[in-house]
């Protein structure tokens, strides 16, 4: 996956996640909304053949890159726990 910043302001960020599916985009979007500094967060896919999610987020003044990084770390932690739990159950 590749993250490309399209626009950046003090309290807003627009970026693409090349190689991401709706599954990944929805996970990230849901996690972004869990952050108390998020005012708006969402993504669109401009064309179904390109399938590149484009995120638009706005914060209450918190650095947007920091908020996205925190959300990504939280998703990673959740997925690692999920993988561990699945391995225990499959044995």
Would you summarize the structure shown here?
43% of the residues lie in helices and 32% in strands. The protein has 2 helices and 4 strands. Strand 3 (38-45) and strand 4 form a beta hairpin.
Features:
single chain, 91 residues, alpha+beta, Gyrase A, domain 2, 2 helices, 4 strands, 32% strand
Question: How does the SSE layout of this entry go?
Answer:
Layout: E1 2-8, E2 12-18, H1 22-33, E3 38-45, E4 53-59, H2 64-90
Antiparallel strand pairs: 1-2, 2-4, 3-4
Helix pairs in contact: 1-2
Give a written overview of the molecule.
- It is a single chain.
- This protein has 91 residues and is of the alpha+beta class.
- It has a single domain, classed as Gyrase A, domain 2, CATH 3.30.1360.10.
- Helices cover 43% and strands 32% of the residues.
- It has two helices and four strands, in the order ββαββα.
- It has helices spanning 22-33, 64-90; strands spanning 2-8, 12-18, 38-45, 53-59.
- The protein has a four-stranded antiparallel β-sheet with strand order 1-2-4-3, with helices on one face.
- Helix 1 packs across helix 2 (64-90).
- It is globular, with a radius of gyration of 14 Å.
- The mean pLDDT is 94.
């Amino acid at each position: 996956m590749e993250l490309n910043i399209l626009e950046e302001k003090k309290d807003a960020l627009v970026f693409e996640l090349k190689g991401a599916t709706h599954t990944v985009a929805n996970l990230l979007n849901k996690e972004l909304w869990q952050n108390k500094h998020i005012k708006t967060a969402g993504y669109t896919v401009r064309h179904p053949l390109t399938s590149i999610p484009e995120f638009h987020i706005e914060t209450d003044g918190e650095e947007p890159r920091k908020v996205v990084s925190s959300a990504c770390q939280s998703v990673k932690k959740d997925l690692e726990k999920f993988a561990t739990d699945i391995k225990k159950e499959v044995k």
